[in-house]
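Q&A FORM
Asked by: J.P.
Topic: structure of Lipase chaperone

PROVIDED:
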Amino acid sequence: MAKRSKVIVGVLAIVIGWAGYQWIQQTGTPASANLVQAPSQQDTEVDESSSRELLEYAYSAQGEIALPDIEQRVEAYIEHSGTSLLDQSLLAAFIGYKKALMGLEELAMGQSMGLDKMEQLHIGLLALQQQYFTPEQIAALFGDENRLRSMAIEKKRIEENALDAQDAEEQWMALLAEQPGYIRRSEQNAQLMAALSNDQQLSQQERYLHHVALVGEAGAQRLEAVEVERAAFEASLADYLTQRSVILADEQVGEEMKELQIEQLRQQSFEPKQWKRVAALERINDRRS
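REPLIED BY: S.T.
REPLY: Here is the structure written out as C-alpha cells.
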C-alpha cells in the first residue's frame, strides 16, 4: 500500500526527468539529521530545499520505517533543527493528505492511463489538496507538480485529437513554448532520461558515444563513473549477501557469533559510510526472502 501511494504522485506528472535531475540542496545539521533519517539515508543529507522536499525525504523511508515512527521522527526534527520550513500544523496536514491518497490508488493503477482517468485523478488530487491545505500552502507544496500534471493531460489530449503525429508534435511544441522554463526543462529531461534508458542493448563503447551525443563529453564521463560505481557496489553487495547467507545457515554457530561474523564481514566488504546503508539493505533483503 505504501508503494501505491508513492505511485499516485509519481505517475501524474512529467517528473521522471525533472526529479532525476534535481540535485539535492541540504542544510540540515548532522545532529538534527539523525532524528529524521532512516538507516539507508545515513550517507545522504536532509533535503531542505523546500517544505515539500523535506517531507518527501522523510517519507521516502516508508517501508523501511513504520509510518507512525516516521511521523515521530519528523516531529523531533522540527523541534530540534529549528527549521522554518515546517511546523506541527503543516506536518499534520501532510500526514492526513498522504493517508487520503490511498483513496485514489485505484485510479493510478496500471501501466498507462487514458485521458479520462488522468483528468479524474487530477481533479481528485486538487480536491484533496484543498481539503488539507490553504491556497498558499498548495502553491508552495504542489504548484509545480500540479502544473506538470496539467501539462501531461494537455499532451495526452493533443495526442488523441491531432490529425497525425506531425500535427501532434507541432501543437505540443507550440504549447510548450508558452510555458515557464522549468516546464520546458522537465520535458527535455524526460526525453533525455528516456533516451538514456534505451541504450542498454548497446556495447559499452556505443553507449559512451551515445551519452556524449546526449550530454557532452564531461556529462558522459560522469555517467560512466556513476555506472562503474553502482556496478561495483551491486557486485560487492551480491557477494556479501551470499556470504552472509552462508553464515546464517550454519547451525553449529550461535546467534551472537553469527552477528559478530556478519558485522566483521560488512566492515571488510564496505567503506564505513556505507555500513548503515548495507545493514538496511540486509533487512530489506530478509523481508523479501
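FOLLOW-UP: The mean pLDDT is 77.
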